[in-house]
Amino acid sequence: MEITIISAENLCMNGKPIKKDTYVVVHTQSCTKFFTTSTEEEGGSNNPSWNEKFLVDGANCITLEVKCKTWFGVKSVGAARIAVSEFNLGGFAAENSLQFLSYRLWDEKGKRNGVINFSVRVVKAPPECESSVWMQVTVGENDAAGLVTGVPVFLNFPLNIPR
Question: Are residues 19 and 92 in the same domain?
Fold first, then answer.
């Protein structure tokens, strides 16, 4: 899926609006893969905008964390943790469908601290990376056979399964 970090609204730190030096970090559930927007340095309002796109694959959950550069180092402003299933991507969203979403940000103390606006678009994997798995299974006491449809698997290498 393609995530576009659009903007944030009503960001505060120590009770004061944050006007510049903010950026967003997009984490996957394993925290081994993350993406970072550029720093919004223009200032002027506490509604920074980025409009930056990232391709996220194989994640069950993502965290969008807004951070701010201060004199004392980088501080977390707020974060939103979102299950990918909330985007209705499990085969229900059409390819290239675009959803615009807004989620509440929560600071480290568990208090509300602004909103993040982003979009999610379903992106089709290249044909050499896609595979559907079909297998025969035994169902019930009478050894009746049933057909199970697997979920497409997205890999970074071609899949060669003997047929």
Answer: yes
